[in-house]
Known about the structure:
Structural class: alpha/beta
Distance between the termini: 18 Å
CATH topology of the largest domain: inorganic pyrophosphatase (n-terminal core)
Strand order of the largest sheet: 13-14-15-17-16
Number of strands: 17
Strand content: 15-25%
Low-confidence stretches: none
Radius of gyration: 24 Å
Number of helices: 16
Largest sheet: 5 strands, mixed, barrel
Shape: globular
Helix content: 25-40%
CATH architecture of the largest domain: Alpha-Beta Complex
Number of domains: 3
Amino acid sequence: MKTLNKQTLFDSLASRFSGDAKKLSDIPNPALLHDAKRAAKKIAEAVTTNKRITLVGDYDVDGVSSTAIMVEFFRQIPYPLEAIIPNRFHDGYGVSPNVLQRIDADLVITVDNGISAIEAARICKERGIELIITDHHTPSEILPDAYAIVDPKLDSCEYPFKEICGAQVAWLLLGLVKKELQLNINMKQFLDILAIAIIADIMPLIDINRTLVLEGLKVLMTSTRPSSIIIRDFLNKAKITSEDIAFNIAPRINSAGRLEDASIALDFYVAQDINTAYKQFELLGQLNDLRKETEAQTTKSAILSASHDAKVIVVAGEDWHEGVVGIVAARLVDRFGVPAIVLSIKGDDAKGSARSIGDVNIYELIKTNERFLTKFGGHKMAAGLGLKTKNITEFTKEINLLASQLDPKEFIPKEQLLGSLETNAIDLELLSIMEEFEPFGEANPRPTFMIKDAQILQIKTMGKDKNHCRITIRQNTHDTKTLELILFKQVLEMPKDKQISCSYTVSKNEWNNQINTQLLISKLYL
């Protein structure tokens, strides 16, 4: 493994990006999205002729963010828009026949859902409701019979960058609506919400996504939107990063739809005063704490149920909260190094979430076993599905049979170790070099480095419950400088040989107006 200094690290990170950095003006024309111009004209016509418009969102961060951008846009026209986010427990996913029962509208627009809403489209047609679907999920062979379908994953779509989230599709479409209605609305004002959606939905942070997140985080630092002010106050940092959003903000926004109702998160986003935004954020914090507790209990049960030699782990439980099954699936992937599907059983029916690893396309594996399913949807790394409880055993057997035919290399996780860092290279200058390549996330991971057989000088426990530790090491015997490693949620016992091998990331630690480097252990190699 190569030893890196600051220059070789810079060169390695620069090689991840091809060509010049994109500017906002380089974002491809939204009109290239299939049906986008048709959809924009129909929305503009509905506004000018006073039609009743209902928006149907989704309960995850991307869906709530998409809904919030739409609500804020229509508020500025101003035009009355009814916005509905289905409840995971009562309504199920997306624009379903269930949700349509309580909609009385001339035009229904979906955001971050609808590409598989065949039955809902049929009902809309029967009732004389025009339906515009905006989504970014992979379509099946049969498409809903809608007035317009805006989805970059359609074969007929000419939009050059396909890996965009639902909120981006909605935002791009609104750009065309603005043009149709000749409105004076600055679309940059929504980039704070948009950046959160891109990060939370694990979109690759390259090309236009990188630009939108960088610009969105800048907007977040200056926006007068009450929700953005609350986020800034909560994070209390001179500069907010993509990882701050991924680890501290996205889970809070997600917790509403997972445990109770996504309208709590929507009300936070679109609050018109600080007091309302603060109350909603506090509620999201409480729900997130409950989510962590529920998730920990379910993960424990799921690990006990898991077959350790499976190519795809499939576990199911009757008492499992369906709002946390996706996170539990991700925990199983980390634990066992294979894709995982976690199902919540309610009588004759089971529904749940899948997460993948490496290059294994979990969507295709599930799709090939479609005959067992009542519903499914998603993309390469994550999917949702439903099936009859009686079919779980057969489905598990078939999906494992299929996965066993894949190349073992496809299961290799994507932790990319760049090399080992020279001890003297780890300083604030190194952090500023790395900051040039932010935002870090999907397709542009924070650099991970290796420490091999380093001498442990001291191990100290830390935290309120003493369940984390601080490990002081000397990386090489000739080093005069020592390093401090942080290990979260685990206390390392001193090994007999007093040595440690691990992978780690370098991040900025801001505390009491002081900035230091912080080395966070990613994985121990014992």
